[in-house]
Amino acid sequence: MKNENRFMIISQNDKPKGFFYVFFHHKLGVCGLCGILLFILMAIFAPMLGDMPQGYGDFSSVQLAPSAEHFFGTDAMGLDVFLQVVWGARTSIRMGLMVVLYSILIGVPVGLIAGFFGKKTGEFLMGVTDLFLTLPMLPLMIMMAAILGPSIENVALVVGVLSWPRIARVTRAATLEAMGMQYIEAAKCLGIPTGVILGKHVFPYASSFILVETTMLMATAILAESGISFLGLGDPTVWSWGKILQGAQQNGIFFQAWWCSLFPSIFILLFVVSFNFFSLGIREGLNPRSREI
Amino acid sequence: MIPTVTITGFLMGTMIGGSLLTETIFAYPGIGRLIYEAVGKLDYPVLQGAFLTLAATVIVIGIIVDLLYAKLDPRIKLT
Amino acid sequence: MKANKYLLLLSMILLLLMLAACGSTGNTETDENGGQDMAQAQSADGTLTLGMLADPDTLNPLATTDGNAGCWFAAMVYPTLLRQDENAEVEPYIATDYGVSEDGMVVTFTLREDLQWADGTPFTSADVAYTKYLAGDLGISPTTASALDLVESVETPDDYTVIFHLSQPSYSFVTSIGVRLYILPKHIWENVEDPANFLNNTNQVGMGPYKLAEYTEGEYYIYEAVENWLDAPNGIQAKKLVFRIYPDVNTMALALQNGEIDITARDLSYDLIEQLRGKGYEIAETNSLGFTHIGFNLENEFINDLAVRQAVAMAIDKDTVLQFAVKGQGEVMDSIVSPAFSGLQTDDAENLYPAYDVEGAKAVLAEAGYSDTDGDGILNAANGENLSFNMIVISNDVALTNGAEVIKQCLKDVGIDLEVMLLERTTFIQRRLDIDFDSYLASWGTMEPMMGDFIVNYLSSSPVYFNGVKCDATEEAVLAMQSAVNEEELVAGIHAFEKAMAQDIINVPLYMQKLSYAYNGEAVSNVQAYPSAMHGVTTPEALVNMTLGE
């Protein structure tokens, strides 16, 4: 009897629950995923919901309250707020992806190198990273956005260049962990070039940690973009949620035409919360402890 | 306690930066609004000064955080 | 370990210092009123708090070209020979009388004899002559330069008479100089080394009802009332004026509702006015004597092409611009002479500019050789370049930014790509002075034909001629206005100018706006808005007449 019991337990331990099993049982994570999918669908099908609002609408339809015709009402220029929000999702996702791309391009190599070479190189790189991490981001972003000029690419570049340190830190931590593992030792002994070790053996180990961080970064990127747009330094040619808010604030209809300020705010909130929940789910799924019984 | 202090240290930077939006919207005369206005005028000396002050604040907070580690956790020794 | 303790102590002290720096305003003299304590406007001690949108361009009354705080502050401290009353009629101020000789070549001002500067020095004709020397001979004052260029010599036969000898007759000279030239005390300004760049931010000696007490750039300007102002024998109720700067009109409206300010010194948008009226705030209204227009820089190769300017004038739906910019609170302009001066317009004023006609605009452009060769919806010039230029706009003026949206769309419909550049107010003013733009959208604070304002702004040699290149027809008409010797000639000149402007199209007049200011009726009453966006409720007489309390 006693032996049998022990055998049972061991067999369970041998078969840990899969990542997807844990993730899909993590309610918040699933909620986040649903939210993200919704935003992606919204962005993809934006042109089918209506043309991008631009210029001005009909003067008789200025600042209309939400109705069946205009789901989210209209703004001071007589444009449909629902379509602005939908097209804003496009900007947000595009912007988020670009930010993630930029910060991975900078952050991952820095993290890998800092973790792999250790000692002086590592310390130096981490010093730089810490410097960037402690710098107040928003003022710097505003300054860079103002100097580079208002376009979505520039804003993404600015946010990306200033948020890579988080990726770098996570990558370094994972790299340091991997360095202690025997297969890296073995690879080193076999004389495999450093680049290949980093790319083929260390990076895959670190990638799951990086994934968690990038989802968080998407949320930060959108907040930063909204802030910059709200201050009027965003791209004037595309819609973004921050820009809708700025329009409402500029026109002094923040409270009268509450639909102009409420809906974009809700979408910013939902977007950020979705990505944060999603990252919680992924973290849970990747955490070996939660995958055991 | 140690992680709390660490996070607080990092948050200070964000906090100082984050005040920019609040100050701009509510016309509160702070360093954030100063930066925003200087950016509009591309007034570089003001920007340099503002960033120097911000950086100094962040560094001082960093030092305090480091020193607090030693106070809070006897196992950590500053060398 | 000991060293660490000191380090910790040092850091703590540094942090404390930084925290302390946040607390006080850093200026001990003004602690009780400066900074955050200013948040509650107090009318009990004679303090009146006003909201404005930007710093003055300069506190130097000679150099200011700003239709805002720059000229409010100049007028509050420095007098002019003549001034305008609440109906925009010219009346004497520090000059009791003025006259023009029959040939129009000699202009005489008789000055008031009982006046003295704030430091007690008597005011004499020498001050006027010296101001003319600074503004005219040294060429410092951009807004009066074109009028002062006509002055051959100034004569001061006695202490209270000033005689200007002109090189050519000019009917508008009297009012132009009388109302626009701030008179400065000679005994102060002759000691100033570089009057053009003089900051004039301490110990101002003027003769107006107020003097600058202290200020912090970007935050507030505090003015104190003088003891005995010439037109307020019973003293001034608003002993102290605090002008606070807000980033936009909405924050300013919010500040009014929070009790931070008593009056908005800048006009508010229609939505805000309606909202505030609904909440029981009082509104002061007046018609603007200025207008909103697009100005062209003819140095740009596209804009230099008259066909492009014609197309722009035809493509813009002014009614729609008026609707979206100011919610229809104003009147569309058909000619350069505003409907506020309808008596001065020529008979067919409404037909001078080409009418709104999108197809017509396209036809004009096609005829001039522009066609969309690369299929991107934007017309191309013969060399393949996109027909594209920029338009600079002040970013925190919602009427202008909304108007710019409409204009951009209108031009897009005819295939012109307009890049709207939103600029901070002082940057805008600077770039316009430097002619660093292709076109601009702005409101003139005031533009009075009879006072020679057209001459000031459209004489190609004027420092405030923003169109870059001289246009012959316009120039000729401006010179005709300048040399008019009597009213009929000036009116004829204005009519000719109106036609010349519509022919050269160096700017597109859009609309004249109604200006509305809001104030807290419990804190201040008797608020009168003067019909010029230059001053509005901040005209010296308006400020002096305000009654504090209910």
Task: Give keywords.
heterotrimer, B: 79 residues, mainly alpha, 3 helices, elongated, C: 550 residues, alpha+beta, 7-stranded mixed beta sheet, 5-stranded mixed beta sheet
Tell me the greatest interface: B-C, 22 and 27 residues
Distance between the termini of chain C: 67 Å
Q: Biggest β-sheet of chain C, characterized?
A: 7 strands, mixed
Strand-residue proportion of chain B = under 5%
Question: Would you tell me the structural class of the helices and strands of chain C?
Answer: alpha+beta
Mean pLDDT across all amino acids of chain B = 80
Mean pLDDT of chain C comes to: 86
- Radius of gyration of chain C over all CA atoms, rounded: 25 Å
Number of helices of chain B: 3
Can you walk me through this structure?
The complex is a heterotrimer of chains A (293), B (79) and C (550). Chain A is built from 13 helices and no strands. Residues 6-11 of chain A have low confidence and may be disordered. In chain A, helix 3 crosses helix 12, helix 8 (152-179) runs antiparallel to helix 10 (194-230) and helix 9 crosses helix 10 (194-230). Chain A has helices at 2-14, 19-24, 27-44, 46-49, 81-117, 119-134, 137-148, 152-179, 182-189, 194-230, 241-250, 258-286, 288-291. Chain A has a domain at 87-291: MetI-like (MetI-like fold). Chain B is 81% helix and 0% strand. Chain B is elongated. Chain C has 17 helices and 20 strands. In chain C, helix 9 packs antiparallel against helix 11 (358-367). Chain C is globular. At the B-C interface, helix 2 and helix 3 of B face helix 1 and helix 7 of C.
Write the topology of this structure.
The complex is a heterotrimer of chains A (293), B (79) and C (550).
Chain A: H1 2-14, H2 19-24, H3 27-44, H4 46-49, H5 81-117, H6 119-134, H7 137-148, H8 152-179, H9 182-189, H10 194-230, H11 241-250, H12 258-286, H13 288-291
Helix pairs in contact in A: 3-5, 3-12, 5-6, 5-8, 5-10, 5-12, 6-8, 7-8, 8-10, 9-10, 10-11, 10-12, 11-12
Chain B: H1 2-25, H2 31-41, H3 44-72
Chain C: H1 2-23, E1 47-52, H2 69-77, E2 82-84, E3 90-92, E4 95-100, E5 106-111, H3 125-137, H4 145-148, E6 151-155, E7 161-166, H5 173-180, H6 186-189, E8 210-216, E9 220-225, E10 240-245, H7 249-257, E11 263-264, H8 270-278, E12 282-287, E13 292-296, H9 306-315, H10 318-326, E14 330-332, H11 358-367, E15 388-394, H12 398-413, E16 417-423, H13 425-433, E17 439-443, H14 453-458, H15 472-482, H16 487-504, E18 507-519, E19 524-525, H17 540-545, E20 547-548
Parallel strand pairs in C: 1-10, 1-11, 15-16, 15-17
Antiparallel strand pairs in C: 2-3, 4-5, 5-7, 6-7, 8-9, 9-10, 12-18, 13-17, 13-18, 14-18, 19-20
Helix pairs in contact in C: 9-11, 10-12, 15-16
